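Listing S7. Sequence submitted for prediction.
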Amino acid sequence: MSGSSGAPNLPPGALDGVATWGAPSAVGVADLTTDGPLDRVVVGSAADRSFPWASVTKPATALAILVAAEEGILSLDEPAGPPGSTACHLLAHASGLGPDPGPPVARPGTTRIYSNPGYLLLGELVESRSQMRFDEYLREGVLGPLGMDATTLDPAAEGAPSAAGLSGPLVDLVRLGRAWAVPAVVSAETLAAATSVAFPGLSGVVPGFGRFDHCDWGLGVEIRDDKHPHWTGDRNAPSTYGHFGRSGAFLWIDPVASVLCAGLCERPFGAWAARAWPRLADDVVDEVTRRRSGADRVPGTAPRHVTGDL
């Protein structure tokens, strides 16, 4: 395997460590202060390859729910899931449903329990209200408008396609990230609400990282807050939000640094990612800061690792 960004002999940079991940990978960084090109590094034959996103499907599903709410076919405050739960509870993993199919294991709004079954119910809610298959509604409401033409939903994914069924290339994952950073398919007000803490003060577990007294989530994305250890970096702002999946996919947006980072990897999430991803995040924030100050660029040269526009 070898690193590639369209130019040989890459200089040292935030993305160079991706070559040590031990599997075909594609990682991209987008500066949200500009509409300029994407910084990208590809390891192996992963340039335009479609990877499974696993649970990074959930932010796309959440956008579809938010679109449906703005269209008026459902309400975020309407009953959904266990008694006392709403669509908002399901989006924020606060419905009381457990990680596996079955009856609720807690009262709604009392704890944060990461739940694939909750997202399966959200997909079914959209289907019943729109009279469309969920994959069709997702395509018309989110994937199509964002130009995510190479991303597809597997209807048989783990029995919960709306929780973990998407596969697609890096360029599409970055497009999804931009839609979570800058209003594209929903209003600025809806996006601001979705990236704010829903049901503050709930404790819960971030899979792979442990239990936190304040396990903050928005409506479809996890909010970093002061969690430690965490899959983002110490340099990321507490308001950083995003998602990762056990397939080796991740997406985060740092609204303070105005940068997003997305990654896809053939190697499933594990201890390696818990070490590598935070280092990458810190390096990305540091390098973006240096670039904006001009501290690491020769006058008249282009930013390194630039490979193409989104």
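Caption to Listing S7: primary sequence and predicted structure tokens for the chain studied. Residues 1-12, 297-310 have pLDDT under 50 and may be disordered. Helices lie at 57-71, 87-91, 116-130, 134-143, 161-164, 170-181, 188-194, 271-293.
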